[in-house]
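TA notes. Do not distribute before section.
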Amino acid sequence: MSFRTDTKPLLRRKVDLSRCTTMHVGGPAAYFIEPLTEDDVFEAVHFAKSEKLPYILLGRGSNLIFPDAGYQGVVISMNRFQNGNILFDPDFPIVHCSAGTQLSRLATACRDRNLGGVEFLSTIPGSVGGALAMNAGFSRHPGQPNEIGDIVNDVTIISEDGKKQTLQKNELSFSYRQSSLKGKIILSASFRLWHGRNEDIDREIRANFDYRTQEQDVRYPSSGSIFKNPTPGVSAGKLIDQFGLKGMRIGDAMISPAHANYMVNLGRAKSSDFVELIHQVKKVVFDGTGFALETEVIFV
């Protein structure tokens, strides 16, 4: 089957995936498609299946690390999907948005409508679809997790039989950095928020950004937290830090001196450098504590 190339979205070959992820590593994608409409998404998936190729959806790439050899399938980038549509319900504090909507843009759009509840998403460098799949969260207050699953109203996906389907909150399950939406093709979602004062919402957004700047390493490309916290109340970063691993590096992949659960790309790191660094960290922590750390980032 040949994918249409006379109109957008164009089917591109050998696209450098290091430019599509926040860690800035990875080789080329065999096929790369940027759907603009729902029909485009259906067509992209149909193309991959008809060619018997694996495919993966990509948002801002903040939680994915592709191998140095690249991806021998179809990468469907949702960054331009529906132009990141954000729509507000005129009667209820509910916001509707496309899967490709950037989380920071969603937070500021809600602030401008005096709607609170998504401020914690403002510092996460991802998109709505990816955040839903992994139940992304952020909190500057220990013991008070804020996760996107807490505010979901409904999610629209492409079902296993290739049809558009809307799932209500009670049909979904969310847990720490996991959801029943993992592996699904997410098209859009709506979130139930609450009314607030613009200045209070803006103050919370700014406080979150200040915390991230002070406590987390934002100087170099990274994928945010590398490991999940192994159990409630046990911080992966503190486990790593107690063995003095901050600053440890392989090639240009380094454990951030500012935050032990961050790994950063100093400039020319390879995906394989991060794989080896993660392996060594897991071994040190397991040998010293018995905790088997699991990665939060996904290695494709």
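Switch to the second chain here.
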Amino acid sequence: MSRLKTRFEALAESGRKALIPFITAGDPNPDFTVPMLHALVAAGADVIEVGVPFSDPMADGPVIQRASERALEHNMGMSSVLALVTEFRKKDQLTPIVLMGYLNPIEIMGYEAFANTAQRAEVDGVLTVDLPPEEAEECVALLKARNIDPIFLLAPNSPPERIRKIDAVGSGYLYYVSLKGVTGAGHLDMEDVKRKLAEIRENTDLPIGVGFGIKDAETAKTISALADGVVVGSAFIKKIEENLDNVEKVKAEIIALTKSMRQAMDS
């Protein structure tokens, strides 16, 4: 059984929802990432999405785009990201780690080489933003053979047949993009999210994580009442961007935000 399945089942049994922070590997520098991952876990994270830096992150807004740029200045490629996950695993064998990024870095490494290296690093899931299920057969087969969950996105306009197709291919959880737009954009319409999640649940038994537009403890709490997981990215990356010259302040503010979301979600 995968770490993701184990984690979501344990959370469901305890009546809690997954807090899923996102940070870009290597931002603001490579030495920051692994200690921050451990700090996120200590502050209440259940699953962590680790962003793979890419030069053309088309689904991301300016905040995460700039995070990729800062990481790329430190030559953070796929191999470097997997090395950081390997380092994280030396002290944490329980927290699921999901790589989130784009297809190009995987294709450069090669599907099989990537799957093998990700397995050795003990990656639990891979979310490739620009890999639709229609083109994912080879990659999905290689990942699933190594007990790595392929995770796919659902959009506000995904029809039931699309939801069922993604349910058949994906595993771990489904990532519902709650806004039409890029990461960090707009404001959530909770009634729209509620209606769409009800439709998604009619077509899948997988846990549903909701991301895009979750900025604070209040929105995290509201979404957690509807979904199985709350994905938060830009709100954390902004803390890094606002304090690039003070890493300890960054860490403290991210920990505080994580704890406030965890407390709100559990209340």
